[in-house]
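Weekly modeling sync, notes
Attendees: S.R. (lead), two postdocs, one rotation student

Agenda item 3: backlog of single-chain predictions. S.R. asked that every request posted to the team notebook include the full sequence so nobody has to chase files. The rotation student volunteered to paste the first one in as an example of the format we agreed on. Action items at the bottom.

Example entry:
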Amino acid sequence: MLTRGRACVMVAFDAAPDLCPRCSAQAPSGLLCGRCVAAGDRLPPLPDHAWWSGELRQALDARDIGKAIRAYRHHPHHGRRRIAQEDMARWLSITQGHLSRIEQGRVRVTNLDTLSAYARILRIPPLLLWFELPPDRQDQALAPPRSNTVLPERLAAAISAPTEVQLADAMLSTLAGHSVRDQLAGPHDLIAVVRRDIAFIDQRLGASRSGSRGRSRLRYVAGRYAELLGWLQQDCGDLEAAESWSRIALAHAEDTNDVQFHTYVLMRSSNIATDAGKLSTATEFISKALVRADVLTPQQRAVLLRQQANVYAVRARSGERADVVACVDALTRAAEAAAEPAEDPDDLAGYCSPAYVAMEAANCWIELGRPEKALAILEQRMSDWSAGSRRDLGMGLARLSTAHAGVGSWSDAVEVAGYAATIVADTGSHRTLSQLRTTATVLHTAGQTGAARELTHQVRTAQRARASHGRSLEWS
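Predicted structure, as returned to the notebook:
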């Protein structure tokens, strides 16, 4: 045994299953003893959802514990200061050199006791493991004696009720489908579906055990669904309902102690407040979110900076030169962050691509009274727009229409507005409709009443098409 200060490090590669993996005192299988836990020198945990995507998930799918350990040490959740290999080796009760060989693949860990000990220390979700964790001694003592059964063991286990973690992960998969549906068909028909899902999640939360991992996972999922419902209400134009659901999402995010999700919900709250004209509240939310920007992925930083730029752009209407400068600076930094390689395929802000930031930048330039700059950006990025992101495409076209109107290209403004109106007929996006109203206002102000009437006719045609499917679309 080697010692470093007061902490002891075992040279043996495999800790005995009934001993503390740090000091060899008696402890539950694979877990730290009470004294080591009290010492406070412990592995920084990851939120459960971090395991289900990115390099961690790829390593577990490949059944490579070495790659999983390395991905754990370098995970963005830990911030800019990744976990040192020396510290991880201490927590795993092996030497740094041996851990290095494991991470490089020069040593393959195949012993079940060792794999189980590492999995428990890292808190890997059991559903992602390629082996079954042996029960802890405490679990064995509490478990009722098993009787003989005519069923195979795997079927007997399947009869048990699904765990909160299983249900939570199933709901996250459903959530991804909801997001795709929103992009294709808009928010209106989806709201009732998401409300029913939230009622189901709340019911399971009420029945979950306080402090359990399953409850924490359900709380995260509840927050994700509340955030989605807040967005759907915002895109429908019901900002009061959007604010209410955003507050619920924020409460869940705070309870889960997930910094990345918390900052994302703060950004969304700022965005809703901006639409509602509550600029001081919007500024407060986005300022709180940016405090923890160092632990975010590049795309998450980009979407926060994009929102900060939006706030500055609206505030600049009062003529403050400082807000204009701050807006341009935030847009520049957002573009730089969005251009960085994506670290996680399931990133909350994975949609924040350079094309998305460009579209948001164009909106800021329209707010700042510089439609020519907005037009140049939008025309340059049009080929990068995704046809699958139909609702976002409609908003991009509506902003392009406003930019054309702002520079005096009246016929182009009306033509592009017609394309946007076609998408609005499918999605019913209130935000896109509001942008088309802005185009009509620019046309009226410029004395182009004929062009404004034609634009209004196109939108009302879309309105009738939508009404034929039993869905309303307001236009004044």
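Discussion: group reviewed the output briefly. The mean pLDDT is 84.
Action items: rotation student to repeat for the remaining queue; S.R. to check formatting next week.
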